[in-house]
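## Example pair
The file below holds two records. Each record gives the amino-acid sequence first, followed by its structure token line.
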Amino acid sequence: MPNRVLLQLDCDPQPSSFDAIVAVDAGVDVLLRHGGVTAATVEPLVHGAMFTRGGTDLASTAIFVGGSDVAAAEAVADRVRRTFFGPVRVGVLVDPNGANTTASAAVVAASRHMSFAAEPRCVVLGGTGPVGQRVARLLAGKGGHVTVASRSLEKSTEVVRGIQAVVPRARIAAVAGLTPVAIGSPLAEVIAGADLIVAAGAAGTTLLDAAGRQAAARARVIIDLNAVPPAGVAGVISTDKARPEGDTLLYGALGVGSLKMKIHKGAIARIFAASDAFLDAEELLAIGESLTA
């Protein structure tokens, strides 16, 4: 069997070292890294991956699409998909900014402690960011009642519309609010009724302060995906992993990080196992659920 070659296509000028190291640790034999990739320039790179090997050897080539600009990476991924034809294709993993693997890990962690058949009420703070959007989309797909929270109602409404286009059955709404959460505000009311709260804001930004935590007394699970101090949720430590505090279980970024890494490595194995694999958020969630089944 030929060496496993992973083509890392990154939209940033310098390809992510994090993604490269994970690929190596996942057993990739040869890593070809390309930065500054755009939807307009990616096709020749894909052709190189498609036409250098034939038959069963083609399965030993795969593509990873990443970068900090999620919209740009999604445009690249769409172009990659449209470049394939018939059986001439290779496995593809799409994980810009780690958004898809992180969101999948967060949803799997929450699923350990609640049934989505019960239609839990979920709030995603920082829901217009790359990770927040994916968390909201996956929760909506699972059947939760999801509220996307952001400082801008216009932006959160735009995210809601985008998710509804992908998940037509989504029960999802938008709300605006600033931190600290004002008592009596629409955001405070949503938090008070939440079963699950996921904070997915920018690094070092507190989205739920101590007063907000008191308002969230009903929440069964609170997940903070910010690993950079100060915490995104007051009182949550980055290493928390289902740490009980009263009736609430707390997760920090590192607490879901080990599962994120397992999903990432499992996804790399999958794209070499099936040349028709195209792994986006939903597919990565399924991998995460299989790992904890």
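Second record, same layout:
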Amino acid sequence: MAEFTVYGVPGSPYLRGALLGFEEKGIPYHLVSMDFGESKTAEHLARHPFGRIPVVDHGDFRLYETQAILRYLDDVQPTPAFRPRDARARARMNQLVGITDWYFFPKVIATIVFQRFVVPMRGGTPDEAVIVAAKPDALTCLKAIEALMEGDYLTGEHISVADLLLIPHAHYFSLTPEGKEIMRDGKLQRWVERMRGRPSLERTEIERLKAAA
């Protein structure tokens, strides 16, 4: 099998979601660690026209978008499977993937988590008004996801694309004061703790990625 090369910024939830796929499958990869903001350079725009991460090269095949990468890994190496066989469980997985990309990320991560973690890293002060305005949307996301959860993982007793895509986002949210308040000891918080116990989560922690790269 040709070597996989992954481009991304350690700490990015979307990079981590893709790397979780490699770790869960046991597929070797080489991480090209990028600095924050480097995704907008001409060099990276040649890889990804929208200036986002991650990007994966597999031989002469290039791919971006985390959920596409996870599905590709599942096709390249079918075991352990990332997609349920049951039609309804697979549909539920796709639904949760959509919720992560279209609601949880823009309404929770790009608002509350961004203000709590990224703004201070850049020397700024969190905008409390932005955070307060985002809390109702965060609660809606939480309730919607918990209403769809079945079994130990999001779609049953085995992890799926939905678990791998959501966990980096949900983990960040769980570390904020708002996440602790909204998630408490609910189903999603217990799922976060269950996922955090997996070796793949340990191997994709930001400091370990930086050291390895």
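Notes on the second record: The two ends are 22 Å apart (CA to CA). The domain at 87-199 is CATH 1.20.1050.10 (Glutathione S-transferase Yfyf (Class Pi); Chain A, domain 2).
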